[in-house]
Design brief:
By secondary structure, the protein is of the alpha+beta class. It has one domain. About 35% of the residues lie in helices and about 30% in strands. Strands 1-8-2-3-4-5-6-7 form an 8-stranded antiparallel β-sheet, with helices on both faces. A hairpin with a 7-residue loop joins strand 2 and strand 3.
């Protein structure tokens, strides 16, 4: 499915990107008990706000394609990765990027998985509810108060998003 989104505001575009990835405003994952047990078995503390966040945004494993007005006639060809699963959490838990997030954040963090536009990074959530992302091409760790802020950051280099699709146009 291909959807033209060039005339929408960035906020509306972000909501559609989330929806294409599998999120919706009433989403609750069925496997929350096993997710909480997994993190607690790994000695990660999970408070109520983090549990609510996991209910809403975790267990999404998606790659969608975004079009830009300046390349490929606006066709959706650039990957946007959203992979917050137990498997991805385990894969990133021992990476240098996650260790850098822990050092930067100065709080206990849950490794969530990989996320991002074109070149994805490691994402974690702190007990404070702050989201952190670290890309291996940069020394910087960035922090955010919400998923929409995180997505805005990842899309900051695109002046105009034209379309989104579940498949690449190339």
């Amino acid at each position: 499915m291909n959807k033209e989104i060039g005339r929408l505001t960035r906020k509306q575009q972000i909501k559609i990107i989330l929806q294409f990835c599998g999120w919706n405003s009433t989403r609750k994952i069925a496997s929350i008990k096993s997710v909480l047990a997994y993190f607690r078995n790994k000695k990660f503390e999970v408070n109520e706000p983090i549990e609510r966040w996991l209910q809403t945004y975790f267990e999404i494993n998606s790659v969608v394609y975004i079009g830009r007005d300046d390349l490929y006639d606006g066709q959706p060809v650039y990957q946007f990765v959203y992979q917050f699963t137990l498997e991805q959490s385990e894969l990133v838990e021992n990476t240098q990027d996650f260790k850098d997030i822990l050092q930067f954040s100065q709080e206990q963090c849950l490794p969530l998985g990989t996320f991002g536009y074109y070149y994805d990074g490691v994402v974690a959530i702190g007990l404070s509810g702050t989201l952190y992302i670290k890309h291996d091409y940069s020394e910087d760790v960035a922090k955010f108060d919400s998923m929409t802020d995180l997505i805005s950051y990842e899309l900051r280099t695109i002046e105009k998003i034209t379309a989104i699709s579940n498949t690449s146009s190339l």
